[in-house]
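sorry for the late reply, my laptop died twice this morning and i had to redo everyting from scratch. anyway the thing you sent over, i finally got around to it. pasting the sequence first so we're on the same page, its 231 residues, then the predicted structure underneath. double check i copied it right bc i was rushing
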Amino acid sequence: MLGFYDYTVWLTYLSLISAGTGIIVCLNGSGHPFLGVFFLLICGLCDAFDGRVARTKKNRTQMEKNFGIQIDSLADMVAFGVLPACIGNAMIRVLPSLPEITRMRTQKMTEFPYYVICVMILIFYMLMALIRLAYFNVTEEERQTQETEGRKYYEGLPVTSSALIFPLILTMQYILPMDVTPAYFLMLIAVGCAFVSKIKVPKPGLRGILTMVAVGCLDFLLLVWRSGILR
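ok and here's the structure:
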């Protein structure tokens, strides 16, 4: 059988499974953007530790390492490139709201030409994520041939940051007295531009990773509680 299936790639596979499930949920029927966000958070959790888990195996062959690098980028494209776009598409059609809160409705986003503009934003975001991942792979491979130390800074915003940014926006749906769908699409543009920018982003250490995981878990619990799943 082609491929590798030991524990070093399990988290990456789980991230792809979670992303694929989230995409199907968002595109099924009227779409369920909040459930899609839950799967996006799971993807972020898997990505936070997949590299560290893989490095615990000391006798990995070069082929196993290269395979891990390739599937990590492919899974990231689906999880943090395609899934956030599908969540946005579901938000256009569902216009999420709480019945007990009066909200500014945004039905015009489903009409021409606004819907076409929204679709163009979704495609733009996915394209920027693709370019970001491909460029990172090329530059990282080149860097490793010239440097022995680990990377300290990322150039451009890592695509994995979407696992924190977009769930936080949907959490605001339960706080602000208006529909956050327009803000979500504006953030898609901003984040997509940040993917391919030349800004320097420090690479988080273990403490930084744990902090982001804690924020993600709090966001997850808040979404679950406010959406009424635990009631």
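Strands lie at 153-155, 200-202.
thats about all i looked at so far, will dig more tmrw
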